[in-house]
Amino acid sequence: MGFVLTDKILDKYFRFFFRLDNNSKKRLIIRLIETIEVKSGKKT
Questions:
Q1: Is 2 contained in some domain?
Q2: How many domains are there within the chain?
Q3: 17 in a domain, yes or no?
């Protein structure tokens, strides 16, 4: 099992990421999705 973030920590990350430009947000989302797919064994 991985590291679990608290709501307080997630809020801090969100405030930081909220300031990113849309292209950077999209790239971040893609990379996060890729880590989920790798960990769950799914490859699309």
A1: no
A2: 1
A3: yes
Query: Rounded to whole angstroms, what are the CA distances from 14 to 1, 18, 27, 39, 43?
Result: 23, 6, 15, 23, 27
Residue 31 domain flag: yes
User: Tokens in use for 37?
Assistant: 């797919």
Q: Over the stretch 4-44, which tens digit does the pLDDT of each residue have?
A: 889 999 999 999 999 999 999 999 999 999 988 776 665 55
Tokens of 14: 């969100």
The predicted pLDDT at position 37 comes to 79
Q: 3-class secondary structure for 8-36?
A: HHHHHHHHHHHCCCHHHHHHHHHHHHHHH
